[in-house]
Design brief:
mainly beta; about 0% helix; about 110 residues; six-stranded mixed beta sheet; 10 strands; about 50% strand; globular; four-stranded antiparallel beta sheet
């Protein structure tokens, strides 16, 4: 079984930045495509970004140009750099294999002045 722990969330002002981290244990992630998802209150979970085992990335239109997904296979880590944050980015963020429902606790991001 894979244990996933998201971290790095918090309260930030509009225009600010955060870097989210996803640490995995129990299995190597190098062969899997990984993704970040988010869910805001009263809204469906949405795919934010994903990265293939080879490093190819994709982004939701709402975050393209502001967010960057990356991975460090040697450290079994996945990251999401979030710049120019907006109030609409407020959500709980989850990581997990692409195409699967995430099962971690997530990390909460609140963008507010």
């Amino acid at each position: 079984q894979v244990h996933l722990v998201e971290s790095g969330g918090g309260l930030v002002q509009p225009g600010g930045s955060l870097r989210l981290s996803c640490a995995a244990s129990g299995s190597a992630l190098s062969i899997y495509a990984m993704a970040w998802y988010r869910q805001a209150p009263g809204k469906q979970r949405e795919l934010v970004a994903d990265i293939s085992s080879g490093g190819t990335t994709n982004y939701a239109d709402s975050v393209k140009g502001r967010f960057t997904i990356s991975r460090d296979n040697a450290k079994n880590m996945v990251y999401l750099q979030m710049n120019n944050l907006k109030p609409d980015d407020t959500a709980v963020y989850y990581c997990g294999p692409r195409g699967m429902d995430p099962w971690g606790k997530g990390t909460r991001v609140t963008v507010s002045s």
